[in-house]
Backbone:
């Protein structure tokens, strides 16, 4: 992994250029006040220093990265050795560039004696090195924290997907067993009809297996599973007993939701209402998009009252499973309401709409 990622190279060079220009402008003013006659000299002095320091700063950053996790004594020893190397390379590179440029333009250049340079530049280099080391350490720590956050988020997503898959796995056997129980009675009345129903059930189960592999899909895909199921139940009970009413606008159909989310609630609506009613029952599925929210309603209404039975406060297996799946997928962003609705019952879901 490079010390400086490709996307940061141009901004880094631009930063060094801006710093060099600012320092050169300040040095130029002092240079003119002292009687200087070659305006390019302050620019050479500052850019020769900034350019070499810019390259050495990358080395310091790499060193800090290599020392991460090492004992403090080892880190201090490494810095004690690296500081004079940093200062020596800075001085050699900076004055090497200056002497080269002055030689090219034919102008004499006479820097201070080497001992003076080492003392004067060495003090500044020590401050620069320490500053770069602290900045670099902060950058490495920030990158490590970001990496940990990404890994935690990845683990959280994988855990949520596994939980959703486990909950989705629970839907299919439950749905299958209840549907087989509903069909079983037909075999004693009309064997060819029961055979047709079982073939339709097999086709529906193949579709649910495909949907289950996707974890989530669009509401349109979900309704493509709900409609055949209700068609199967209409064939079982007869259209005079079961009326299907599905309404979903185009914007709602594009919203994504966990696969097989509505199948169990719809199946429960058939099982717990149609199967116990003597008259006609309407099972409705309505979906509408309101801004960034998807509102779903599964309801059942009968023409005649059904015998009273002890209510399940959780709404049965389907609703418990649904609540767990929504909590795993959306957390507090999803809401579930279940209760009486006129002459029947209604389940209302509100979830974020992501297309």
Residues:
């Amino acid at each position: 992994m490079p010390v400086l990622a490709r996307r940061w190279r141009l901004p880094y060079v631009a930063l060094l250029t801006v710093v060099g220009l600012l320092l050169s402008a300040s040095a130029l003013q002092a240079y003119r006040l002292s009687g200087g006659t070659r305006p390019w000299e302050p620019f050479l002095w500052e850019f020769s220093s900034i350019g070499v320091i810019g390259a050495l700063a990358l080395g310091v950053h790499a060193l800090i990265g290599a020392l991460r996790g090492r004992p403090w004594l080892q880190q201090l020893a490494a810095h004690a050795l690296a500081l004079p190397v940093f200062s020596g390379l800075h001085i050699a590179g900076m004055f090497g560039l200056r002497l080269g440029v002055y030689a090219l333009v034919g102008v004499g250049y006479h820097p201070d004696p080497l001992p003076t340079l080492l003392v004067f530049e060495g003090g500044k280099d020590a401050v620069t090195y320490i500053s770069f080391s602290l900045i670099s350490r902060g950058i490495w720590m920030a990158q490590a924290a970001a990496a940990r956050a990404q890994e935690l988020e990845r683990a959280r997503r994988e855990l949520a997907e596994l939980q959703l898959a486990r909950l989705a796995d629970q839907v299919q056997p439950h749905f299958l067993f209840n549907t087989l129980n509903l069909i079983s009675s037909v075999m004693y009345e009309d064997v060819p009809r029961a055979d047709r129903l079982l073939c339709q059930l097999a086709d529906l189960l193949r579709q649910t297996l495909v949907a289950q592999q996707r974890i989530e899909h669009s509401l349109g895909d979900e309704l493509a599973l709900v409609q055949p199921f209700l068609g199967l139940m209409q064939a079982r009970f007869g259209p005079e007993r079961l009326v299907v009413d599905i309404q979903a606008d185009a914007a709602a159909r594009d919203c994504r939701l966990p696969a097989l989310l509505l199948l169990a609630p719809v199946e429960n609506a058939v099982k717990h209402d149609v199967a116990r009613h003597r008259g006609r029952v309407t099972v409705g599925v309505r979906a509408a998009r309101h801004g960034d929210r998807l509102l779903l309603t599964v309801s059942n209404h009968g023409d005649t009252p059904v015998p009273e039975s002890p209510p399940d406060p959780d709404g049965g297996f389907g609703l418990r499973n649904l609540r767990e799946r929504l909590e795993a997928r959306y957390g507090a962003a999803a809401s579930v309401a279940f209760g009486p609705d006129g002459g029947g019952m209604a389940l209302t879901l509100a979830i974020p709409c992501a297309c």
